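Run log, item B.
One chain of 113 residues. Sequence copied directly from the ordering sheet:
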Amino acid sequence: MIENIDAVIDPRTELIRALGVKAYACNPLIIEQEVIGTISFGSRTRESFTPEELSLMTTVAGHISIAIGRLLANQQLRKNEQRLELLVQERTRELEESNQAFAKTLESITDAF
């Protein structure tokens, strides 16, 4: 969190200052202990946020992280389902080929008698 951006001498704040932002808070988006991004909040009218606002921002970031985590998990689940379906199709084809070969062998044996 950066309060009173005009007092901060840091090249990373140049864009924020150029946008007229006076107070800035950046919260990490964390999934499984890995930062996957950030969400930032800024104010052009005030130089600081209240503790309640900062708490709300942290809560919002947490909820967004959970939502993104669920989305990623669902995407992985769909990929796994597709992969499993392909494997089932392949195994089914192999089983059909094996059954046909077995039937031919059995037919050859019965024809021999």
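Observations after the first pass:
- The chain has a mean pLDDT of 92.
- The first helix runs from residue 14 to 18.
Flagged for discussion on Thursday.
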